[in-house]
Amino acid sequence: MLYGEGIGEAMSATRRRFLLYSAFGLVSAGIGATGYSNTIRTQIEPDKISIKIDGLPASFRGLTIAQLSDMHSSSLSSNELIENGAKAVMAEKPDVIALTGDFITGFWKFKRKYLDRLVEAFGSLSAPMGIYAVPGNHDFWAGPDALKLIVDEFSSKLGVVWLRNRHIMLNKGGEKIALLGVNDYYHTWWIRAAYKGLDHDTIKILLSHNPDINTKVEPHMRIDLILSGHTHGGQVVAPIIGAPWTPCETGQKYRAGLVRDGERQTYISRGLGQT
């Protein structure tokens, strides 16, 4: 989840911050990001990181963005874990909620009960400025009928707005920032369509399940912050050697946490569920 808060009077008028707040399941309490697996049990580990964004409108100072990613609702991800993730989000009283893909696991035949369970577990989610989502690779792997059902269920029952190769404007105090979203990196993403019609100077936050979308950001595009998941922190992380493999074309660069590429920053959630 992503969480934002005020930053004190010392900050200049043109530099504001978000405080990133991300939660992920752990094998056991105390293992944290150096554990052997990123999610099996029901503990939730919050991650809060302050993010500076040049030119962020003053009205958005203290904005709270909560991110949930990689739920992977299936027999491997407990209902309690997913419910605890939703509770952790709502405890932060977010202004915006971002769901960054892999709602279910698409390795095997789609089972409606796991989608129903996820929608029920997320029933408490609400945010005054909206809930926004993009699909992940597993959502596409489950097939077009399953993907349509995911989109329809989250839209009709939770009021989720899907940002599939498009953007919306967030308005606050007479000022605006852009929230963009793209389809999964392996399935019909189109960053140009999401970016179309936006002024260069507008602050832009992009939702993309796979952080490899960074390789497709064109030189003329201003993207201030990308929110991603997909990596599960490296799937398996061992002491000393770290993560031997990450499911990204960019290797270890976007494994987890906050990564900077010049003025663009990417936050990669470790995710809630297990594959």
Structural account:
There is one protein chain. Helices cover 17% and strands 25% of the residues. The chain has 275 residues and is of the alpha/beta class. The protein has one domain (15-268): Purple Acid Phosphatase, chain A, domain 2 (4-Layer Sandwich). Strands 7-8-9-10-12-11 form a 6-stranded mixed sheet. Helix 2 (112-121) runs parallel beside helix 4. The longest helix is centred in the middle third of the chain and has 15 residues, at 144-158. Mean pLDDT is 77; it is low at 1-16, 18-40 and 236-243.
Summarize it.
GO terms for molecular function: metal ion binding; UDP-2,3-diacylglucosamine hydrolase activity. The chain has 275 residues and is an alpha/beta fold. The protein has helices at 79-91, 112-121, 137-141, 144-158, 191-195, and strands spanning 15-26, 43-54, 65-68, 96-99, 131-133, 161-162, 166-172, 175-181, 204-207, 225-228, 257-261, 264-268.
CATH topology grouping: Purple Acid Phosphatase, chain A, domain 2
Q: Strand order across the biggest sheet? A: 7-8-9-10-12-11
Strand residue content: 25-35%
Number of helices: 5
Helicity, in percent?
10-25%
Shape: globular
Total beta strands? 12
What string, H for helix and E for strand, traces the elements in order?
EEEHEHEHHEEEHEEEE
Low-confidence stretches: 1-16, 18-40, 236-243
Oligomer: single chain
**Which class in CATH terms?**
Alpha Beta
Ends distance: 20 Å
Tally of individual domains: 1
Q: Mean of residue pLDDT?
A: 77
Largest sheet: 6 strands, mixed
Query: From the 3D coordinates, which CATH architecture would you assign?
Result: 4-Layer Sandwich
**Radius of gyration over alpha carbons?**
17 Å
- Structural class of the helices, strands and pairings? alpha/beta
Protein name: Ser/Thr protein phosphatase family protein
Organism: hydrothermal vent metagenome
Keywords: Hydrolase, Metal-binding
InterPro entries: Calcineurin-like_PHP, Metallo-depent_PP-like, Metallophosphoesterase_sf
